[in-house]
From TrEMBL:
<comment type="similarity">
    <text>Belongs to the peptidase M20A family.</text>
</comment>
<dbReference type="InterPro" id="IPR050072">
    <property type="entry name" value="Peptidase_M20A"/>
</dbReference>
<dbReference type="InterPro" id="IPR036264">
    <property type="entry name" value="Bact_exopeptidase_dim_dom"/>
</dbReference>
<dbReference type="InterPro" id="IPR002933">
    <property type="entry name" value="Peptidase_M20"/>
</dbReference>
<keyword id="KW-0479">Metal-binding</keyword>
<dbReference type="Pfam" id="PF01546">
    <property type="entry name" value="Peptidase_M20"/>
</dbReference>
<dbReference type="InterPro" id="IPR011650">
    <property type="entry name" value="Peptidase_M20_dimer"/>
</dbReference>
<keyword id="KW-0378">Hydrolase</keyword>
<dbReference type="GO" id="GO:0046872">
    <property type="term" value="F:metal ion binding"/>
</dbReference>
<keyword id="KW-0170">Cobalt</keyword>
<feature type="domain" description="Peptidase M20 dimerisation">
    <location>
        <begin position="200"/>
        <end position="322"/>
    </location>
</feature>
<dbReference type="GO" id="GO:0016787">
    <property type="term" value="F:hydrolase activity"/>
</dbReference>
<keyword id="KW-0862">Zinc</keyword>
<dbReference type="InterPro" id="IPR010182">
    <property type="entry name" value="ArgE/DapE"/>
</dbReference>
<dbReference type="Pfam" id="PF07687">
    <property type="entry name" value="M20_dimer"/>
</dbReference>
<protein>
    <submittedName>
        <fullName>Acetylornithine deacetylase/succinyl-diaminopimelate desuccinylase family protein</fullName>
    </submittedName>
</protein>
Length: 429
């Protein structure tokens, strides 16, 4: 490891002094259960961040994404954007973190919203994905401000809604309103490991297929037409032709983990027939031939594939089933599309963070691409800003799992990398 500059030494010490604060901040954020769906406690966490960042000299805005998918008076989609300007004009560095977390699920041995600190790890839903990253970016900015009183440009920190369900009530809304028009560098502290720089993500196409039938008495199914059997034929065709074809498609993108270097398809949900009876009820379903079955598809695709090719493959499955089944009838509805995104490895933010990782950890970073999308898609496509990466603490494989955690040491290291990046981008040389 090369010798640290006096500025790096000072930043390292400032972050070390804030270790307990970093732990407490992360715990506080975890203890606000911002579950999505439905969108709980968004205003509460934004108010918390408002108090914290205002006390550090940031000007803050609380922004509700009126009319965005999911926004309602019961579950308003609140976001916070905080900005602090330097002594002179210069470039703007923006740290963006999502405030929402996914469902808890089963299998936890710790309180999902307890923020327990054990053996150098903080446990809880959203610990690594991505409240630990949000906390690390705040500590990085505060340490930088304490050490460097004279700097040029601006620092922005945002906490945004709904990344886990597409980001349309968060970053997409902000981008549509022009909030990234004067931003030059974006760092998204997603959990990709402290020695990795994530350049982008695969594409995603979500669609719902509904097969149709005719209702009849379940004791006389020959008088009806079973939509579930039609859907079974669709699934069989996928197994026979589509899944093998996808397994042969590979990318030159540095996607992690290894299995995501190929095209993938997940059947996200499947339902046919009557609505399921609650487990609290004791009645039995009525005997009916199902006249509807619905499947939601989650297709992840590569930068080498076009969206037309992706959609055409699913259409081909339906066409082949239709040719074999005289009464086959269906509807297909697109739910979401996101094109693949990948920042140039030679872009300013990539090279700056790369040098900061090398100087902090004593090794060169690994450049990766995420298997799933995150809010870079909106900064790229709507905000028209290519100079964007994901970099933050945490292990990607822990996201959405029981006993999710983030390591304190990894948060400290990533905060140092972020603070050092601010120093390179905002301090006159």
């Amino acid at each position: 490891m090369k010798e640290r500059t006096p500025l790096h030494v000072s930043l390292h010490a400032a972050i070390a002094d804030r270790r307990d604060d970093l732990i407490a901040l992360t715990q506080d954020l975890i203890r606000i259960p911002t579950l999505n769906p439905p969108g709980d406690n968004y205003r509460e966490i934004c108010d918390y961040l408002d108090r914290r960042l205002s006390a550090s000299g940031f000007d803050t805005q609380l922004i509700r994404a009126f009319g965005a998918p999911g926004d309602s008076d019961k579950y308003p989609r609140w976001n916070i954007v905080a900005r602090r300007d330097g002594a002179r004009t210069g470039e703007c560095v923006h740290f963006n973190s999502h405030i929402d977390v996914v469902d808890v699920g089963k299998g936890w041995t710790t309180d999902p919203f307890g923020g327990e600190l054990k053996d150098g790890k903080i446990y809880g839903r959203g610990a690594c994905d991505m409240k630990g990253g949000l906390a690390a970016s705040i500590i990085a900015a505060e340490a930088f401000l304490a050490v460097v009183p004279d700097w040029a440009g601006a620092i922005e920190i945002s906490g945004t809604a709904d990344e886990e369900s597409g980001g349309f009530g968060g970053v997409a809304y902000l981008a549509e309103k022009g909030h990234f028009a004067n931003v030059h560098h974006v760092i998204i502290p997603e959990p990709l490991n402290v020695d990795r720089i994530c350049l982008g993500h695969r594409g995603v196409w979500w669609a719902e297929i509904e097969t149709h039938g005719e209702i009849a008495h379940g004791s006389m199914p020959f008088l009806g037409d079973c939509a579930v059997r039609h859907m079974g034929a669709v699934m069989h065709e996928m197994e026979e032709t589509l899944f093998p074809a996808l397994a042969l498609k590979h990318t030159a993108m540095p996607v992690v983990p290894e299995g995501a270097k190929q095209s993938t398809l997940n059947i996200n949900s499947l339902h046919g027939g009557q609505a399921e009876i609650s487990r609290a009820e004791t009645g039995l379903p009525s005997p009916c031939v199902p006249d509807s079955a619905r499947m939601v598809l989650d297709r992840r695709f590569l930068i080498e594939e076009s969206i037309e090719e992706v959609m055409g493959e699913i259409q081909g499955v339906l066409d082949r089933v239709s040719a074999r089944r005289p009464t086959f009838s269906y509807d297909m509805r697109e739910m979401m599309r996101v094109l693949p995104s990948m920042t140039d490895q030679n872009s300013p933010v990539v090279q700056t963070v790369s040098r900061a990782i090398s100087d902090t950890l004593g090794r060169d970073p690994q450049y990766v691409v995420s298997p799933g999308t995150y809010d870079q898609k909106h900064i790229d496509r709507i905000g028209k800003l290519k100079n964007c990466i994901a970099y933050g603490p945490g292990i990607l494989d822990l996201a959405h799992k029981p006993d999710e955690y983030v390591g304190v040491e990894e948060m400290m290291q990533s905060a140092e990398v972020m603070a050092l990046s601010l120093a390179e981008l905002l301090v006159d040389r």
